[in-house]
Amino acid sequence: MPTEHIAMNSRTEGHEHLTYDHSLSQRRHHCLTRFFHLYTAWGYHFVHLPLTDSYQHYDRPYNQELLKASYRFVNSNGELLLLRPDMTLFLLRHIGQIDDAHYPYRLWYADSVVRHLHREDTSLEDLFQSGAEFIGINESLEPDIEIVLLCNELIATVGIQQWTTHLGSRALYRHFFDYLQEQDLHLSHLLLCAIRERNLVELPALIQQAAQRKPRAHYSSQECRHLTELFSYIGAVEHLPTPPIGPPAMRQALAKEHATLQKIIQTLQECHPGTYVLDLSEVGAHSYHTGICFRLYIAGANRAAAAGGRYHIWPSANRSTEEERYSAVGFTLTLNTIEESLSDDLLEDSVVAAAGKSFTERYHNAHQRRSDGQRVHL
Amino acid sequence: MPISGGATGSGYTCNPKGLLCYEQRIPTKMITFALPKGRILKDILRYVEERGFQCSFGERELIAYDHQHAIQWLLVKNNDLPIYLHKGSAILGISGSDMLMEYNLPLCRLAPLPFGRARLSLISQQENQQRIPLDGTRIATKYPHITHHHFAAQGIAPTIIKLNGSLELAPLLGLAPYVVDIVQSGATIRAHNLVECYQLFKTEIAIVANNSLYKFYHKAVDTIVERLRR
Known about the structure:
The complex is a heterodimer.
Chain A: H1 3-9, H2 16-19, H3 22-41, E1 45-46, E2 52-54, H4 64-68, E3 72-74, E4 80-83, H5 87-94, E5 105-114, E6 126-137, H6 142-157, E7 163-169, H7 170-177, H8 180-183, H9 185-196, H10 203-213, H11 221-231, E8 234-235, H12 248-271, E9 275-279, E10 289-298, E11 306-313, E12 326-334, H13 335-340, E13 351-353, H14 359-371, E14 375-377
Parallel strand pairs in A: 1-5, 7-9, 13-14
Antiparallel strand pairs in A: 2-4, 3-4, 5-6, 6-12, 7-10, 8-9, 10-11, 11-12
Chain B: H1 22-25, E1 31-36, H2 41-50, E2 63-66, E3 71-76, H3 81-86, E4 92-96, H4 97-103, E5 107-112, E6 118-125, E7 138-141, H5 144-152, E8 159-162, H6 169-172, E9 178-183, H7 187-191, E10 194-203, E11 205-210, H8 211-216, H9 218-229
Parallel strand pairs in B: 1-3, 1-4, 7-8, 7-9
Antiparallel strand pairs in B: 2-3, 4-11, 5-11, 6-9, 6-10
């Protein structure tokens, strides 16, 4: 086929909402209208984020995984720009513009992100994310619980009936392996990937390697086995083995984290009964996570529908001390995953025609019926 | 009907984009398990049946069932298996670490299996055995990404030719003086008067799973995996 014909006939990703399958647009509309009402009812403020930003603000070692998947281009001034690959990343950079008086601040967003995920998976380049962040929170568990509950209600409000919420902790990982950030960043990355992906074939050897890097007292072989069991644990919170690993201070930290997760899951069950699973392979997708981490999995979906957790931020570039940081907790929902799991029966498509002989009659008839909640065209 | 995200077997209906709606994906008490075609299949079938699973495919059949253990077995090409798992057409599978490395997809690796160990090696004719590939040297392989990364790490940029099978022919026909391929006993390369220059890394086979589907159905999946590990 001549090249110009290929170019004329090719479509960028996302066009299918217009041309291919009307139900895809309906699905997006269905989700967004319900999300808008729920976020607003929960007292969250809508924020709009820029589509591009200067690349230099994001070029940090901890962002490398996300930046590897990003698209960049040079503008007319020769400045390297980054096309938004993730909503939270851009949100964190612009959070400094919020006046201190607004904290604690609850906000939500919904927009597209573009990233190259995998050469075998080009269908995932154009994602639509919606999420919420609760910024400037204290050390209480209530904000974490609030965010998980909001995320669950969003999934429920669109009509999804079967999902599970898996809760883990980045804090727990940090208790045992925080030293790797300075000792061996590459090993830290490999270890986190193995835990997150449940690579139980390589995890024991990676934990052994990490143990060798530990300053002063290394973890013993037995402790390495316990750590492997711990970070591959998935099940009921009350059955979590709490093995004696490390010095007393570390054992106390482990017990404290276990109690924290137990309290969170118990409160979640009381507020919004559902399937909550303690899953210590949930260590957060991003290096900025510091506390609880969670993901929502829908029946039959091949990707997680939502992911979130607690993290620290510094509201502006000129603040960098421990005292000046804010704690925050939030999540991101991937609408593409949720939309694929929606039944066509849930989608409303009952638009009716206005009655009347003249245009004016039809207009008044439509106006009356719209105020009753009907969808009416002229 | 199987539990899976994207299978389009009997009983499924899809919209034009191939999306399965919620009800069609709802668990129907079966776990989809993809097995790789090829020389390792015989060993896998024997291993699986020794552990009490029923898994037999009729001639030309690609789908089989174990109703007692609620498993739908799928036969797929070795190099397509990671994609079937990643896309959710199967929850569980058995794959070699070579294919997992080549695709580098975020799949769970739940347990290694005690057979099928091999090595990924650089192979050539006798006269090239002591020579190292240089920039531009042609290398034929089914593993272009692994090969690229291996040589790039040494600062070498060979010309990689992607082939899908019968790699032994490439040096014999002058397509490429080197081949990167799996070597198990070495009998095949010896039969073609080829030699193993050196080993890139050892490979093994493992039980793998789609991460999100594993998380949702972990109890049912773990029961099967535990039985397979006995």
